[in-house]
């Protein structure tokens, strides 16, 4: 029998039992809607995480002092990164830019207002390397860094907190009691969750080290690889140089750590992918439950239509014709449910995103996958009832009341 | 054409063995019109189901056109039922929610014939129901339903038409019309075998096989 006829017949029989068919579909609808919306949320979260990491620059190595201690016992951070280290790194051929970074908390005052923020002492390349742009005014100059000028660039949130609507550029603020001239305000980047880059103050590292915090060691050195250089290669160069400078013995562990942004992106995408998969599989379980619902309904249908099966066999239907008929019916139910569920799930994902709760992203492959999966559920759970129908003895079936 | 010897079929009913067929020999030639008669429970339907390849005997041999049916697998039997035998039931057994035309076309669809629709129309015309082909079974009278069922039995143009109590659910006047239709089909050369418990119905057939307790007690 032609497949189109079989599909037509199953649609007709589903229409004849609308309530029951919709109930059978409901499980699949919920399952597919759950899968589609969960995967959309997972994919959205993944995109957001990656966007945040890339906002920090993708060709960056972030070098921090290592943990002191042996045998797994950590006992505080070593203070072993120096300005000389930073200068030496800049001479490496595969390195384009380097910035030393020092950090401290600062009480920042302007007239009556007052806010406590993180103060970063940095060199000029810090801004482009970390993807910061100056929205008003300008960054401090090379000369200002060299001369330990008391100049500051404010994060937009900090500026808002201190100045409200007033013009910050050119104003004099006090940081831990020392007067700084505001030369610029950063463009907003958005809260990163663990740290808000919009609420901080950038000053030349020279003035931060000598006057603000009295530091001789660096909190961090950021290195940007040369154009087109392989970041892993750059990391190897940096490691070799620092180990030599720190006179580390052959075979000992590094006394610094390097965070490779490329690796970070890789790791985070793996993590979020796993997260998406997890969400999807949890939702997939509800799809399985939907499949059990289909099996149940199909078993009832087969019993109810025993006599019809007998008649079909009497006029020449083979076992596989009967099998196919009920299998197609199960798949039609699950596919229709899948289509409705995919629409519902996409709508849910869209709504969640529109309400701003989560950055959902509807993945066409996810939708196709969910549909394929629901069809597979139909085949899997329709198989047993269909086989039962196919194996009915024609005489028994015809005698069935 | 039909050569059955020593057919045996037993059932267990409440721990007691019932011999529905107890060594039945039946030989029927092409173009015959035969009534199988006897009281209720004597094994008529059981015999009919075996002849119609819906059931298999436990013992004995059944040859259809010289071919031993016992040697055929399920698919081959389905093929025989589809192409060589037309079955008519007492209670019509039409599929609900399906037009008369679709019901009649069904065997042709199972036989994968491309002209199923045209064949079904011809078969319905043959039983005088071409004006009702788009009606569903529940919109037809009993006699009309049985005509649709006969059209379905004819759509594959089988050599043999089996009918199990075809007039059993009909009033006597409608029953007469159905019997006339069978006679007409027999006149076209088809072999007709009809089960009935009613001697008056059986009287329409030139040959009558009389069963009692699973045995042939009279044939002629
Ligand atoms: N599936 C079955 N299970 C048990 N007993 C059966 C079955 N089919 C038929 N029988 C028994 O076999 C005997 C013959 O049945 P059947 O051929 O239907 O008789 P008839 O058609 O002549 O009335 C009856 O006694 C009936 O009860
Ligand atoms: Mg009977």
Task: Give the topology, please.
The complex is a heterodimer of chains A (401) and B (220).
Chain A: H1 3-16, H2 18-55, E1 60-65, H3 83-90, E2 95-110, E3 113-122, H4 126-129, E4 134-137, H5 142-146, E5 151-154, H6 156-163, E6 172-175, E7 178-186, E8 200-204, H7 205-212, E9 220-225, H8 231-245, E10 256-260, H9 261-304, H10 306-314, H11 319-354, H12 364-390, H13 394-399
Parallel strand pairs in A: 3-8, 5-7
Antiparallel strand pairs in A: 1-9, 1-10, 2-3, 2-6, 2-9, 4-7, 5-8, 6-7
Chain B: E1 2-13, E2 16-28, E3 33-37, H1 44-51, E4 59-64, E5 67-68, H2 74-83, E6 85-88, H3 100-110, H4 116-126, H5 142-154, E7 160-164, H6 172-187, E8 191-196, H7 199-202, E9 207-212, E10 215-219
Parallel strand pairs in B: 3-8, 3-9, 6-7, 7-8
Antiparallel strand pairs in B: 1-2, 1-4, 4-5, 9-10
Helix pairs in contact in B: 3-4, 3-5, 4-5, 5-6
Give structural notes.
The complex is a heterodimer of chains A (401) and B (220). Chain A is α+β, with helices and mostly antiparallel strands and 401 residues long. Chain A folds into two domains: 3-52 and 267-399, no CATH class; 79-254, no CATH class. In chain A, 55% of the residues lie in helices and 17% in strands. Chain A has 13 helices and ten strands. In chain A, strands 2-3-8-5-7-6 form a six-stranded mixed beta barrel. In chain A, β2 (95-110) and β3 form a beta hairpin. The model of chain A has no long low-confidence stretch (mean pLDDT 89). Chain B has seven helices and ten strands. In chain B, β9 and β10 (215-219) form a beta hairpin. The structure holds adenosine-5'-diphosphate and magnesium ion. Magnesium ion is lined by residues 44-45 of chain B.
């Amino acid at each position: 029998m032609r497949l189109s006829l079989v599909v037509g017949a199953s649609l007709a029989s589903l229409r004849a039992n609308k309530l029951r068919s919709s109930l059978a579909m409901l499980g699949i609808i919920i399952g597919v809607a759950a899968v589609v919306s969960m995967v959309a949320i997972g994919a959205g979260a993944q995109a957001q995480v990656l966007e945040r990491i890339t906002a920090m620059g993708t060709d960056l190595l972030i070098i921090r002092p290592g943990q002191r201690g042996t045998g797994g016992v950590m006992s505080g951070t070593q203070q072993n990164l120096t300005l000389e280290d930073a200068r030496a790194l800049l001479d490496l051929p595969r390195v384009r830019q380097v910035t030393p970074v020092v950090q401290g908390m600062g009480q920042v005052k302007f007239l009556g207002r007052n806010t406590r923020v993180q103060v970063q002492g940095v060199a000029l390349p810090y801004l482009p390397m970390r993807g910061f742009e100056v929205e008003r005014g300008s960054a401090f100059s090379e000369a200002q860094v060299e001369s330990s000028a008391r100049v500051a660039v404010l994060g937009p949130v900090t500026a808002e907190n201190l100045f409200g609507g007033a013009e910050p550029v050119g104003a004099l603020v006090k940081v831990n009691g020392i007067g700084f001239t505001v030369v610029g305000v950063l463009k907003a980047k958005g809260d990163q969750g663990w740290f808000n880059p919009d609420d901080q103050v950038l000053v030349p590292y020279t003035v931060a080290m000598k006057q603000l915090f009295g530091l001789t060691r660096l909190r961090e050195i950021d290195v940007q690889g040369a154009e087109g250089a392989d970041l892993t290669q750059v990391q190897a160069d940096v490691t070799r140089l620092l180990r030599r400078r720190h006179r580390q013995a052959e075979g000992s562990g590094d006394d610094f750590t390097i965070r490779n942004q490329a690796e970070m992106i890789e790791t985070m995408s793996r993590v979020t992918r796993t997260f998406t998969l997890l969400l999807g599989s949890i939702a997939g379980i509800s799809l399985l439950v939907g499949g059990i619902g289909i099996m149940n309904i199909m078993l009832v249908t087969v019993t109810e239509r025993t006599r019809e099966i007998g008649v079909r066999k009497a006029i020449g239907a083979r076992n596989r014709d009967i099998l196919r008929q009920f299998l197609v019916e199960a798949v039609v139910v699950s596919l229709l449910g899948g289509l409705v569920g995919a629409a519902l799930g996409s709508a849910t994902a869209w709504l969640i995103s529109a309400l701003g709760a989560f950055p959902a992203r509807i993945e066409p492959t996810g939708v196709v996958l969910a549909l394929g999966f629901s069809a597979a559920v139909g085949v899997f759970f329709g198989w047993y009832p269909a086989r039962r129908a196919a194996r009915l003895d024609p005489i028994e079936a015809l005698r069935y009341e | 054409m039909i050569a059955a010897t020593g057919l045996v079929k037993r059932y267990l009913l409440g721990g007691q063995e019932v011999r529905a067929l107890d060594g039945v020999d039946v030989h029927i030639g092409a173009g015959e019109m035969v009534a199988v008669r006897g009281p209720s429970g004597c094994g008529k339907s059981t015999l009919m189901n075996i002849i119609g390849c819906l059931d298999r005997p436990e013992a004995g041999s059944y040859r259809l056109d010289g071919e031993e049916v016992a040697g055929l697998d399920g698919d081959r039997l389905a093929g025989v039922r589809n192409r060589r035998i037309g079955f008519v039931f007492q209670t019509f057994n039409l599929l609900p929610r399906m037009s008369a035309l679709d019901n009649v076309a069904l065997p042709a669809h199972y036989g994968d014939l491309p002209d199923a629709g045209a064949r079904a129309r011809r078969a319905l015309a043959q039983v005088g129901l071409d004006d009702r082909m788009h009606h569903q079974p529940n919109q037809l009278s009993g006699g009309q339903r049985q005509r649709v069922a006969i059209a379905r039995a004819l759509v594959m143009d089988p050599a043999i038409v089996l009918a199990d109590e075809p007039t059993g659910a009909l009033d006597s006047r409608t029953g007469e019309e159905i019997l006339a239709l069978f006679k007409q089909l027999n006149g076209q050369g088809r072999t007709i075998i009809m089960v009935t418990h009613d001697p008056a119905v059986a009287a329409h057939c030139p040959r009558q096989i009389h069963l009692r307790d699973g045995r042939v007690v009279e044939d002629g």
